Amino acid sequence: MKKNEILVAIGTPHRKREQGKQSPDGKLKECVYGREIASEVAVKLQAMGYKCVIDYMPLDLPKQMQSQSAKLERQRELSMRVNFVNELCRQNGAKNVLYVSIHVDASGNDGKWHEPNGWSVRVGTKASAKSKQLADCLFDAARSYGLKMRQPTQKQKYWPQDLYVLNNTNCPAVLTENLFQDNINDVALLLSDEGRHIIERIHVEGIIKYIESL
Ligand SMILES: [Zn+2]
Fold first, then answer.
1. Cβ-based neighbours of 26, under 8 Å, separated by 6 or more
2. Over the stretch 58-98, which tens digit does the pLDDT of each residue have?
3. Cα 153 to averaged position of ligand 1 atoms, centre (Å)
4. pTM of the predicted model as reported, rounded to 2 decimal places
5. Which of 79, 81, 156, 178 lies at a C-alpha separation of 20 to 30 Å from 72?
């Protein structure tokens, strides 16, 4: 597959108005960190001749889409992301689009540090073979950096999960959980220059490997 035949859509995580979603010391905010990584990944892929877009860069929805109901506002955000990706699928053909949503994991939502750490990748509950293949490519890239890998079994590299953006997008789609925002060592790595570089490289290398396999 020629590199310019595939459109890479990068997904940013959450919104600033979404509660929690940050390290207990407030130094890592998932919505900010994910957008910084997404930008870097897009710039690197574009510089190498790949077509790459980001689903949503603003930190919050436009005022008229905000709501006092956190649930409603979240649903509007997720629908917007899915509509964006599915419009790309309609224009380019779903098999020529891929979606990678970039997140940072958490094991608690209580403002405290926790033990769980490591890297994982999710696919939808009815994921296509191509989604699983994309997940495998990202997993292999992450493992090559010596991160602690989280996987359901020794053979299976991805976790199926009922996530709206994975189950409702028409193209191969995965979500990466890049270490834990409530593990003190993971956060130190994520915020370091080395850690940022690793998280960026995982996505660039994993996505390229997948496109080359098509
Ligand atoms: Zn997240």
1. none
2. 999 999 999 999 999 999 999 999 999 999 999 999 999 99
3. 23
4. 0.98
5. 178
